[in-house]
Every structure is written in C-alpha cells, then in structure tokens.
Design a protein that fits this description.
This protein has 20 helices and nine strands. By secondary structure, it is mainly α. Strands 3-4-7 form a three-stranded antiparallel beta sheet. A two-stranded parallel ribbon has the order 1-2. A two-stranded antiparallel sheet has the order 5-6. It binds glutamic acid.
C-alpha cells in the first residue's frame, strides 16, 4: 500500500468570544488526520469581521486547544512557513486576488448603499420573488454612471459575477455527493478593504496548502461560491468535510446563548479532565475505536481514523455520558496525579485555600484514594476535602451533626483522646486509629460503633457524612485530630 499523502488540515475560528466547543470538536479530527498521515495541523484566526472581535478571545483559543492537547503545528502564536495566520494581516493577498477576478470579468464593483440593499430585500420579500439575490444594478456600470442613480456609496464593494450555471454539487468526504442551492452575487471584498469569509477562506486554504477543508455543516450552502472561486483562479480543489452540527438534548443546535456547555472553557471551569473531554467529543458522530467500549485514547483514534466512518446526523451532546467518562478517567489516575490535578484545578478557579500549596497537595494526594470513587469532576473534590484543609479551630460543626450527638459525647471524646494519645506520632495510621478507638469505645465502654464513632466523626469533619473517618484522621495526623476531639469535648 502506498502511504497516504501528508494532510494539511486547519481549524479557523473567529475570535468573537469564548471559544466554542465545536472548535475543539473539529480540531480533534483535523489533528487525527494530520497525525495519521504525517501532515500538519494549522490554526488560522479568521478576524475579518472587525466589529465582532472580542479582546482576549484569540488567547483563549490557544489556551483551550493547548489544555486539550490539540495544539496546532502552525498558528499566529507559533508561526510557520505559510504565515501570517491571522486574516487581518493578509489584506494585500485578498486585494490582489480580488483585482485579478475583476480583471478577468469574474467580479464587479458594487456601489449600492446598505439602505438600498435593505430596501431591495424588503421588496423581494414582499413580492415573494423566488430569486432574492442582488439585482445587479451596478454590473457593467462605471462609477460615474452609477453615481447618477440613487442609493450610491462612494466606497464600493466587489461582488462575484455568478454565472447562470454554477457548479451546484460537490463531493464531501463524509456525505458523498452533496447538492446545494444556487448562490447569488456574493460580496467578496467589503467597503473597508477586508475580504468576506468566502474570498478569504478560499485564498487562505489554497495559499496555506490545506488539503482537507473541515468545517461545520452550516457552510454546505456556501460551497458553490467557493467552487467557483477555485475554478476561476485555476486552483485544485481541496477535500471538503462538513461536520455534523452538535445539538442539545432537545435537538436544537448547540449555542453559547442557550447552553453553557457550548463554551469550551465551561468544561475546564467545571473540573472535567481534558482527556475525558477529547474522548467524549471524539465519540460524537464517530464510532468507538474498540467495539463495545467508550474509553479510548486520542492515539488510538489516530491509528484507526477514517473520514468515511462519520455519521452525518447532528449528534446530541449528552453531558451524562461525559460525567460517566470523566469519573472513569479520574478513577484511572494515580493518587499522585489526581492530587496534582485537584490542586491545579483549585489554582485555576482561584479557590481560596486555608493552607499553602504544598500542604494542599499533600492532603489532596493522601485523600485521593478515599474520594476517587465519589468524584465525577475535579470540582467535586473541594466540598469533600474542605474539612481537612480548614484550621482546626475554624472547623464549622454543622447544625444537624451537633443535634445528632449522643448524650455521652463528652465521655466518648475523653476516652477517644486518651486512647489515641497512646499512639506514636509517626504510627498514626487509619488502622492504628481505628483499632485504638474500637478497643476503647466499643469494647471498653460497650457502645455500639454507630454511637461510639458519631462524636468522633463530628469532631473531625464537622458533619454527619464525610469521607472515611479513620483515613481522614490519618491525613490530619495525631496532633490535629486530637485538637479537634478536644475542641468538641470542651464544647459538649
Ligand atoms: N471562521 C469560520 C467559522 O468560525 C470558519 C469556517 C471554516 O472552517 O471554513 O465558522
């Protein structure tokens, strides 16, 4: 078998706000294709709509892709041989191509004001005209001829001259032959000298040597315009892939306004592991690598990846499944790694901590085995561990815990303190603490374990339900455990 040609794929987000989950979704498959063929994955910033720019958005795109392990090989940030990778820095390229199209008669100037175009659209809608495109008033006119008519603007745009028989079908790698509606005379260069998406995407994909144009299915109907441009310019067509749109559980298109999970950062803010999110996204509309198992690594996807395996119906983003996957990934982490991730997450969300970073790391790592099974996300860790982090004299005893204390609380705590005091500082393990407390409270005082350990748990954790008690005491250590028992004894 001949090896595949190295693919050049790209993701081309617009920096118009928080990065969309769809950007990561596409990037996964772009990168899989590039890695599998020994090619390159490019990030291009499509900032031609200057009015919609949002400060910081470009940086968030870099950060979120890096977080997911989907960093591009070429981008405005890392550079590369086909730069600049930011469209606002490529205006001369677009202007030259637009001029070339004007010279060849494939494009023309249009001086119509936005008001005239709005009026035209209104009339077309009112008369239920089938053809709602631009009426070509300016076509064939010089500036001076056009200036004599109403609705004239001094700053013209450039439009494509769409022929009567434009190409209306194309081959999509996941959809096969696709039919599209006929385009109208699309603006390609705006009055401000910026290109529209349609000109810029074709010029850049060609000049950057992109072999696979992977984008959302909302661009299918625009593809005929792009086919025309490729044809006029004498450029080879790339492969086209129109990814199915991600949908909410009610089947509507996933959008940032309606669904917080449309924001890529939401997953990070809420304590999902990047590898779990990549795994989750890679299973949307694409079959699992291992039949019958949802757990797969990105490298396994790369090894078996084929565009043709995609489903084309918009997949539902079911966060219940992500929760399940995330829990499974958390349980697979070593205690050391889980501790590290928990503390890194606290740092990222600026969680105020009553202890320094080293102590937080020690507590999170030692507590990892006792909370692992109960964690869905890293976010769940703090409410489980806060009682271990807080200063002993600041531990809050919750009302329901204090109301449930048995009558003999003072006596139980006194006996517990006496028993634990005999243990050596460095032998204060969960097993040793449990054995000492059982001997003293259950065997010695003849109490039922439920009654005996209730005040101990309340003293240590301040609540009725907590992670395993003896392990928690071992994490606190002898001195802090005794201090907590003493504190509740004095209050009892
Ligand atoms: N800037 C376009 C978008 O954000 C990119 C479409 C494409 O990948 O061609 O949807």
């Amino acid at each position: 078998m001949t090896p595949p040609m190295p693919a050049r794929t790209r993701v081309a987000p617009s920096p118009t706000g928080d990065p969309h989950v769809g950007t990561a979704y596409q990037a996964i498959f772009d990168l899989a294709c590039a890695r599998q063929t020994g090619g390159r994955f490019v990030l291009r910033i499509e900032d031609t709509d200057q009015a919609r720019q949002v400060d910081g958005s470009e940086q968030q795109i870099y950060d979120s892709l890096a977080w997911l392990g989907l960093s591009p090989d070429e981008s405005p940030q890392v550079g590369g041989p086909f730069g600049p990778y930011r469209q606002s820095e490529r205006l001369p390229e677009y202007a030259a191509i637009a001029q070339q199209l004007l010279d060849a008669g494939h494009a023309y100037h249009c001086w119509c004001t936005p008001d005239r175009l709005a009026e035209l659209r209104k009339q077309q809608e009112a008369s239920k005209q089938a053809d709602t495109g631009y009426d070509r008033l300016c076509y064939g006119m010089t500036r001076d001829e056009r200036a004599k008519l109403p609705g004239f603007s001094e700053t013209p745009v450039i439009r494509m001259l769409v022929p009567d028989d434009p190409p209306l079908t194309f081959t999509d790698l996941i959809r096969g032959e696709v039919a599209c509606p006929s385009p109208d005379d699309q603006v390609i260069l705006k009055a401000d000298g910026f290109p529209t998406y349609h000109l810029a995407v074709v010029v850049d994909d060609h000049l950057m040597g992109i072999t696979h144009v992977v984008r959302g299915e909302e661009w299918i109907s625009s593809t005929p315009k792009h086919l025309l441009l490729y044809g006029w310019l004498g450029w080879d067509l790339p492969h086209f892939v129109h990814m199915p749109l991600l949908r909410n559980t009610d089947k509507s298109k996933i959008a940032k306004r309606k669904n917080p999970a449309a924001r890529l950062m939401w997953f990070r803010e809420n304590g999902y592991l990047p590898e779990a999110l990549v795994n989750f996204l890679s299973l949307l509309a694409y079959p699992p690598v291992h039949e019958g198992s949802d757990i797969q690594t990105f490298d396994e996807l790369v090894a078996s990846f084929v565009w043709g395996k995609f489903a084309t119906t918009g997949p539902i983003v079911d966060l219940g499944k992500l929760d399940w996957l995330n829990g499974a990934y958390i349980r697979a982490l070593s205690d050391h790694e889980l501790g590290r991730r928990i503390v890194a997450y606290w740092d990222e969300v600026s969680q105020p901590l009553p202890v320094d970073a080293v102590e937080a790391r020690r507590i999170a790592t030692q507590a990892a085995p006792i909370i692992k099974e109960r964690l869905t996300t890293l976010r769940d860790a703090y409410p489980m561990l806060d009682f271990l982090l807080v200063d002993d004299d600041k531990l809050v005893i919750e009302d329901d815990a204090s109301e449930a204390l048995p009558e003999q609380t003072a006596e139980i705590l006194a006996a517990a303190i006496q028993a634990l005091d005999t243990l050596p500082e460095d032998g204060f393990t969960a097993e040793a603490a449990e054995a000492a407390l059982r001997a003293s409270l259950v065997d010695g005082l003849g109490l039922k374990p439920r009654v005996a350990f209730n005040p101990v748990r309340t003293a240590i954790a301040g609540r009725k339900v907590s992670p395993p008690l003896f392990e928690s005491m071992a994490i606190l250590g002898k001195a802090r455990s005794l201090a907590r028992l003493q504190r509740l004894r004095l209050a009892a």
